[in-house]
Design goal:
Bound molecules: adenosine-5'-diphosphate, magnesium ion
Order of helices and strands: EHEHHEHEHE
Number of helices: 5
CATH class: Alpha Beta
Radius of gyration: 15 Å
CATH topology: Rossmann fold
CATH architecture: 3-Layer(aba) Sandwich
Length: 143
């Protein structure tokens, strides 16, 4: 294993995923790439909170993305990862992650079983489900 991608939407599940991804990166001496993808859904959800903020929408969304990444990076460091990159991207999260994994020849993607979605009955979220079916590498789904 040389490159492990940890997809993070700021959810508790994603937090557990980045902890495991970091432990794997440490034991394989692999690079850990933490990725946050802003989709329309994400933007919509944040807009309600953003109304109180006196900053431009784009700037505020960027701040939220960076906040998610820095929290995830701190968890990764706590779990022993040293070679850590972070990135944000925009688009459909599953599509973006699959393209990224292909382009970078990632060895594994680590995700939470569920994310920020509100549909309580779902066993798997839509992103984790699409990745499990379509990713070009191993997919580790963390409870
Ligand atoms: N926008 C995103 N950017 C990065 N990772 C994501 C994103 N959305 C989901 N993920 C990853 O996929 C996991 C499952 O989320 P998801 O399939 O969206 O479930 P839900 O339907 O509960 O939101 C998350 O824990 C996270 O690891
Ligand atoms: Mg989701």
């Amino acid at each position: 294993m040389k490159l492990i991608i940890s997809a993070n939407d700021g959810s508790d599940g994603a937090g557990r995923a980045v902890a495991l991804a970091a432990a794997l990166a440490k034991s394989f001496d692999a690079k850990l790439l933490i990725v946050q993808v802003s989709d329309d859904n994400f933007s919509q959800k944040q807009l309600a909170q953003l109304e109180q903020l006196k900053v431009a929408e784009g700037d505020a969304l960027e701040q939220i993305s960076l906040g998610i990444l820095s929290k995830a990076k701190a968890i990764a460091k706590d779990h022993g990862a040293t070679n850590i990159d972070t990135m944000t991207a925009a688009g459909d999260p599953a599509k973006v992650l699959i393209e990224l994994a292909k382009r970078k020849h990632a060895d594994a993607i680590v995700v939470g079983r569920r994310g920020l979605g509100q549909l309580e009955g779902l066993l798997l979220g839509s992103v984790s489900q699409k990745l499990a079916s379509l990713a070009p590498c191993a997919v580790i789904i963390v409870r």
